[in-house]
Write a structure and sequence with these properties.
By secondary structure, the protein is of the alpha+beta class. It is 38% helix and 25% strand. A hairpin with a 2-residue loop joins β16 and β17.
Amino acid sequence: MSNNELISALEQIEKDQGIPKEEILKMVEQALVSAYRKHAGQMVNVVAAIDRVSGGIQAYVVKTIVETVTNPVVEITAAEAARVTNGVVEGSELRIPVDARDFARIAAQTAKQVLVQKVRETQRESLFTEYKPKEGTMINGTVLRFLSRNIVVDLGRGSEAIMPVREQVRREHWAVADRIRALILKVERSQRGPEIILTRAHPDFVKRLFEQEVPEIYEKTVEVVNVVREPGFRSKVVVRSNNPKVDPVGACVGVKGSRVRPIINELQGERIDLVAYTPDTETFIGNAMSPVKPLMVRLLSHVEKRAEVLVADDQLSLAIGKAGQNVRLANKLTGWSLDVRSEGQKREAAQANAQATVDELSQLDGVGPKTAEALQKGGWADVARLAHAKPDDLTALSGIGEKTAENNRSRPGVFGKKIRGSAIGCSGKRTA
C-alpha cells in the first residue's frame, strides 16, 4: 500500500467507523515506535511521525549529546554527533534518521493489530451508546443460536442480545430463525463488549404490549397502573382512566376483544385479567379477584392488611384459580392477604362457632343445652358479659322465663361462673 493509499484508507475508516483519522495516525505512530524498539531494544529513545497529507513515514533515534558516554543507547559524544550534523551543542538532543524499511513489516503488522482493536472498541462503545437508552423498550429480533439454555438473539447490523433462562417463559418454545419480540431489560458493559439482556417474563413486557396495541394508553388517556404476572399462565393488569368518559377496561379489550386478543396471542395463550383501579380498598380487592365478582369483601385488619372475600359456592375454585394462581396474584396486586371463602364455608364456620358457644355456655352452673342455645341466639355468648346480666335482660330472650330468671335471683349460682376466684351471678352481685 502506497502512502497516499494509506491516507485514503484511513479516511474511509473514519467515514465508516466514525474513528477520527488523526486518532488512527497517532496509533500507527505509536505502533511504529513499538515495532522499532522490538527490533533495536526497549531502551532506545525513538520517535515516529506520519505526514498528514502525503502519508510519508519518518523515524528518528533521539540521543543526548554528552562529553563522556555512559549509556550508548541514549547518549552520543559531540565528535560522533558532528559526523551526523553540524553545529552540535553538548546537552542538546540529536535526531538520527532511521530507515523505516528496516522494520516496516513488523510495524505494519503491529499497526494492523492496533487498528483492529481500536475498531472493535469503537464498535462496542457505539453499540453501548445506541442500546443503553433503549432499556425498557420493545425490540424485534431473530433467534440466532442457543448457548446452554440461554437464547442468543440477532438484532440486526451485527448486534446480538441474550435472553437468559430466568427471563424466558417456561411454556414458550423457540427454534433457530424464529422471529421473536422481547423487552430490553438492561444493557451492561463487559469484557467482550456491551451485553444486551432481553426478557419476555418481566411484567413490563405485558405493559409495553398494551401500550403498542391500545391507542388510549399511548395517548395517556388510559394509564397502566400496575402489572403482576406468573409468566405463561396469568397476568393481572390494573388500568385507570384519566378521562371520566372513557372506560379503561373496555378501551383495553376493544370491540369483541380486538385489542387484547393480539396481546394474548403474543403471550402464547397467557390469561389476562383487566382490573379497573379505584382508591376504595374493598372495591379494588373485589375488582382484583377478576374473573370472579365477590359477594362481599370485609376488611379484617388495616394494620396487618387482612381481608375476607366471600364468593358464591360455584365460584370458589375459579376465585382461587389453578394451584392458587388467581388469589395469589390478587394478593400481590392489592398488597392485602385475602382469605377467600364460599357461602357454604362461611355458613359452616358460623354454625361451628355457634355450637362451640353453646357448648361453652352449657358448662355454666344452672344452664342447660336449650338455655345455652337461647343465650347464644340472643347475643349473650360472651361469658364475662353474661355474668353481669340482669334478670330483665334474660326474660326478654325466647326460652328463658321469669321462673328461671327468679331462680337466679334466689340462687346466685344460676348462670354464675367462678371468675377471678368468686362466683358472679347474672345480677352482677358477688356471692361468697
